[in-house]
Amino acid sequence: MQKKRKFEESTKASKSSKVPKTPKRKTVFFPEGSHDEVIDIEVTELLSKTSISDTNGHVSDVNNAPEDAAVHRSPDAKYEKPAELHQEVELEIIQLSSTGDGLAYNTTRDHIFIIPFAIPGDRVLAKPWQWKGNHTYCDYIKTIRPSPERGGATPQCKYFTKCSGCQFQMLPYESQLEHKKGIVQRAFKHFSGLKDEQVPEVKPTMGSPLQYGYRTKLSPHFDGPKGWGNKKQAQWNGVPEIGYNMKGTRKVMDIESCPIGTDILQEGLRTERERVAKTLQSFKQGATILLRESTERAYRDVDERSPRFDTSNIPSTVTLASNPNDLTLESKESESSQSGTPSIIYTYPTHIDRKTYTSDEKAEATEYITTMTTPADPAKNSPATTKTYRFTNTAGSFFQNNNSILGPFTSYVYNQCIPPPKPQPQSSSLDDEQKHERSKIKYLLDAYSGSGLFTLTLSSLFTSSLGIDIDARSIEAARRNAQRNNISNAGFIDADASALFAEVPYPAAETVVVVDPPRKGCDREFLKQLRRFGAGRVIYVSCNVHSQARDVGILVNGFRKSEDNRYSGNLADAVDEGWEEDGLYNYEIESLRGFDFFPQTGHVEGVCVLNRVDKERKASD
User: Fold this and answer.
1) Cys-Cys link to 347, which of 56, 283, 317, 330 (CB 3.0-4.6 A)?
2) Which domains are delineated in the chain?
3) How far is CA 251 from CA 138, 183, 206, 221, 370, in A?
4) Where does residue 362 rank: exposed (0-12), middle (13-18), buried (19+ CB within 10 A)?
5) Which listed residue (138, 157, 258, 543) is catalytic?
6) Range among 53-62, 319-328, 530-539 with highest mean pLDDT value
7) Where is the active site (predicted)?
């Protein structure tokens, strides 16, 4: 699968011996929000805030701890192993980490155990397998006493607690959304380096309309025959396990259905498993199977009534959790072609969708996204409108894997592009100053634009929109998608990172920049260019809220370290000595919100909206 590509700083250097050597920059740590970084921070914080009573093993506030409470070690202290590895232990879960794991205390030592598939209040049987200083990773064995927080939630997958895919099927969806709000909060606390007053209250997590059957892409795999890496040709001894890795191992477990996949991908998984079994001898080694959903849509002849396929009734929480299309679904039929390829026909009052799938990375796959827009003047009672966009991409390229939330998600980003009106209790309409503030945003720059998701779905707001990406193939796909959707005010260019903003023709103060980087976030060269350009408004979309928090901290405070930098100490500051700060703009955060693209998992996406502070930052400030 082709992943999102990041803008990279040039690392080429001349090999000529005549070129004088320049002094090396100080090597610094640039946190990326990896699993280990997040665990290290949250374990250390938990140990610093709570203590264990040796007499009863209960968690208590460190300020009220009894005299015999465990003494917390300094970061440089030497740790002793809290338990024998591979020996089963009973543990009480007291906290859920941002990685989706349960955290438990050793009852006699100042130590944390990390156990998957467990939530606060659970008492579980676990088996330690890796000791890392002040914490130990464990395998989940079983739940001895379930937590009341499980609330009767029933996992819908028989492989749950064995497969590495999902973490939260035992947790009610409302609780999943609340936990993911906490992930965003902790990410900005630990990785942004910002003061509390610089970070607004995190808005409730927007839930996915579908909590199961939402993934439009699956990639099961299987290993090669024993000894396939040797020069001697290995032989298959029966059909291998086809599925996903077991939790905590590299061993593939056999999975014939995955309930978070869409209906057509469930059919496709069965079909592809049969195909592998029939053609097994053609595989010389293991392989990954691509399953990508594709939609063919035909609009029906309808009367003049309003279309019923808009997204206006999609809730931001799970109060009415279901796919809104279910409200108007007239029929659903499965069929199969002569070659045995399955398809599913969904009939709605206004259109018919034929769902198929492809396993060819170079084949095209199509999705439809309906974005709801709001009127420019909220004081006027003009109705919201909807527009449906068609996106076609190669099946192996990157595109969001949960179509059910893409409509509400792009609608939300659309409505963040223009600054909201300031409260006017004495007036029912916008004054001239507010209208000017809202109308001066005229242009969109979509960095990391890919195949044009934001450039196109936001284009109706702007005089002109420009998508930029380092991948020329994505740019070509974006241009074709603009043509398919009859959008004439959107253009696309592939640009090198070193000159990313050099080709932007828009006045910075009148421009919104949408940033949607890969998991590692933006590199420092990109952030420096962005701050020098000084867009009037920035919308930072991220699939890793920890690297997002780091980057937003740099947009707000710059690269220089402050006394309140939250990731000082063990996590060194992300500043090179002598980093130039002259003429760079700073930003302030307007809003922050999480989006649940992957229900039943510990993953959350984030959207942070920032406004430029209209004062250039000087090195002497």
Assistant:
1) 330
2) 35-150 (2.40.50.140), 217-291 (no CATH)
3) 17, 29, 35, 11, 40
4) exposed
5) 543
6) 530-539
7) 543, 543 (nucleophile)
Q: What is the rounded distance in angstroms from the CA atom of residue 591 to the CA atom of residue 102?
A: 29
Contact (Cβ atoms closer than 8 angstroms) between residue 65 and residue 51:
yes
The residue with tokens 């930029």 is 468
Mean pLDDT estimate for the chain: 80
Nearest one of 211, 224, 467 to 315, comparing CA atoms: 211
How do residues 462-484 score in pLDDT, each as one tens digit?
999 999 988 888 999 999 999 99
pTM: 0.84
Does 543 participate in catalysis according to the annotation? yes
Q: How far is CA 160 from CA 140, 156, 216, 323, in A?
A: 11, 8, 20, 23
Q: Which of 129, 103, 135, 132 is nearest to 117 (CA)?
A: 103
Cα–Cα distance, 178 to 594 (Å, whole number): 10
Asked if residue 469 belongs to a known ligand binding site, the reply is yes
DSSP secondary structure of 469-496: ES-HHHHHHHHHHHHHTT--SEEEEE--
In angstroms, the CA 458 to CA 445 distance is: 10
Annotated binding residue at 414?
Answer: no
| CB environment 426-445: b (16+ within 10 A), e (fewer) | eeeebeeebeebeeebbbbb
206: nearest Cα among 599, 601, 611, 547? 599
Beta strands in 279-438 (DSSP E): 287-288, 291-299, 331-336, 342-347, 351-358, 364-373, 385-394
